[in-house]
Write a structure and sequence with these properties.
There is one protein chain. The protein has about 160 residues and is mainly beta. Helices cover about 5% and strands about 65% of the residues. The protein has one helix at about 5-15; strands at about 20-30, 40-45, 45-60, 60-80, 80-100, 110-130, 135-140, 145-160.
Length: about 160
């Protein structure tokens, strides 16, 4: 599976730069856990997300948006004794379909959506008791996947620089 990130990077680099553009993105991520094993009272962890992409036009106002980025995910559970947070950082490799909302001039709004493959970079557990000091440790023994696949969507604003 280690060849997948290399293939994604190669695809990003191999895109001819005729009519294509490069994009820089950043924002916030609200992550949580789900599934049969997840506690019922799981909350969201807010984290940062940033990266870069190549935008390849497919048709008028439609493009393929292939990128790489860094994102912070995890979850939070609030209990009577304190708050437990899981903080997991990933390298994301998204492949989005991008639909632009045309404008006469100025900034262009767009929607993106598609699959994202994520590879774990770090994982930490943090317990903040109601009274006392915060306790942190690596989640070496935790049952956390080293990679993940998910669906991602978003809204963006495209502006010319320079």
């Amino acid at each position: 599976m280690r060849t997948l990130p290399l293939l994604a990077i190669a695809a990003l680099v191999a895109v001819p730069l005729q009519g294509q553009s490069l994009a820089v993105r950043g924002g916030m991520n609200w992550g949580t856990w789900g599934g049969d094993d997840a506690p019922t009272d799981v909350g969201y962890r807010m984290g940062f997300a940033f990266g870069a992409a190549a935008v390849v036009p497919l048709a008028d106002n439609v493009a393929l948006d292939i990128g790489a980025g860094y994102t912070q995910k995890g979850m939070q559970v609030d209990e009577i004794l304190g708050t437990l947070r899981t903080k997991i950082d990933y390298i994301d490799l998204p492949i989005f379909l991008r639909v632009e909302m045309p404008a006469e001039e100025g900034p262009v709004f767009y929607l993106v959506g598609g699959p994202t493959v994520s590879f774990k970079v770090s994982c930490g557990l943090e317990f903040e008791p109601a009274t006392g000091a915060v306790v942190t440790e690596d989640c070496v023994d935790a049952d956390v996947k080293s990679w993940d696949v998910g669906a991602t969507g978003g809204l963006g604003l495209d502006m010319e620089v320079g």
